[in-house]
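Q: Structure for this?
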Amino acid sequence: MADTYANNPEWSDVTPIPLDDGSESGAMPLATIAYPDEYLDATSYLRAVMAANEMSERALKLTENVISMNPAHYTVWIYRARILFALDKDLLEELEWLNGISLKYLKNYQIWSHRQILMASETHFSTLPPKELDFLMEMFAQDSKNYHVWTYRHWLVRRFGLWDLPRELEDVDALLKADVRNNSAWNHRYMLRFGPRADKPDGGMVAAGTGKVPGVHDVVDEDVVDSELEVAKKAILKAPENRSPWWYARGVLRAASRELGEWEEFAGLFVKGEVKSTHAVEWLADVYAKERAEEAVGMLTMLKEKYDPVRKNYWDYRIKMLGQVA
Amino acid sequence: MSLVSGPGRATGTASDQSLHTLKHVDYIKNLDTRKDELEYWLTEHLRLNGVYWGLTALHLLGHPDALSRDETIDFVLSCQRENGGFGAAPGHDAHMLYTVSAVQILATVDAVDELEKRGRGGKQKVGAFIASLQNREDGSFMGDQWGETDTRFLYGALNALSLLGLLDLLDVPKAVTYVQSCENFDGAYGICPGAESHAGQVFTCVGALTIAGRLDLVNKDRLGAWLSERQVDNGGFNGRPEKLVDACYTWWVGSALAMIDRLHWIDGKKLAAFVLQCQDPEAGGFADRPGNMVDVYHTHFGIAGLSLLGFEGLQEVDPVYCMPKSVIARCLGK
């Protein structure tokens, strides 16, 4: 063991705390763990400095070392953030370092929680750091549907009030251009355009949890509604069977308290003659449901028998709800 | 319980529609002999979850005694911390996810009273740890003292505290309001307000509302439509639109459908056929997809999913708790 903490003079004043695997309490562990020596050495010193609540440069380095061996070690991240704040470190430098780790461990979520803790500091970040959105696009280049990154980005929008920052919508547009089926990007688009902008309650659909119908706005900018419906239409023309823009259009119309019937003609384009979109068939069924129940049943029956027999019972239920015999 | 993946691969075929129960039992029992592998310590942060997955799968397979009850209890208690919560493994800090697994394991082996006898401060202390993680302003839950929120933690808190009979330690109405704020325009739910709908989070949100007795707040038809759309041509479920299928979504999607009484909206036969192709008929275990390496996580959720579908030979699973129905009946008296 060459470069161990145990034989490093810089650490000679620290008494390492070995792993307590429960065996001394008389409990026979079901799973005694065979750790590599290097990891055991580092974590025994980590426990010691954490127990002493040491806020130092060497402890900071130690956390980096442990993270490099096991980024899923959730406790070490907490400790690292506390040291960074205690020593008043340059958090932009920390972000740079984090960028590398994030690109290496794409599925890890502790990294994103850590980033959020740093970015939440109003003392350090009164405005959005200029390279932040570039880095998120780098992450999306690896995985454009990365759930942690999208959740963080939504949080960032609320943290810095970025709803109308042109860059937000530009990035969404770019990602949808690359993959019009990116449901994550559609969700972000909805939150930018129709998410609540007040600070509280934090963020999902407007009116959620208030007893009113969630997602319905008291007042909307009809121009925004119209232009967003156009965006959805264009996407559907590109890929008619893509679910996301159809859901999106429903959300937009609901936000504006407008009717699905607006799209009767548009949806018809994908049904008349040859069926090019099952979602259009369903849309027409919903439009017809109010006054033309028989036609609605025709649409639902088509889905049940021809296009989506896997969900036969669902379509039967829909038919039954129309008061018709399945 | 080791979380090392492999050694086998899912080589099930469409023609083989049998569940290789004994192979799966052996696979789970032998996981613990894999400690010399590198991946073993890399997955240490999930160990207590792993015990819950393995143990629950064994119970559903009808082999509840395949793991030593005493050793299981000893291991769980060795993960408990001074603050009443449990870490992923001995020496790890307490976290919501492992505390929930600890309670679920103890409930499954009927050993909750061991918390009073040998635990640190009895079940009241465990409950207090969980309750301390609730944000009393917005109702959400953190995983640990550092504040990350996730509807998984909220669900876990309601799950564990209802099993312990200590739900009154929480502000349940606030938790319910928080879940409502996670609903999206497509009718499904995400990890926090505004986050994309995800089948795993739908399970946690619907599960939490079920335990809270507030399923009336769910638009069941719309959510059921979104959930049933998760079934793709090969019979399996994905977790979000346009994502790959994965055997574990059999559980997340299926249980949520079951809770809102709409499991019959999907094709159960096709789904079961897909899940069976995810098993390794030789060495046991399930993978995320046919051809991939097996692991205990997918083994648990694959088996739980099959149980949900009423697959013959399996014990019945409770869709809310993901534990054997008989255990829930004993704990909750229903």
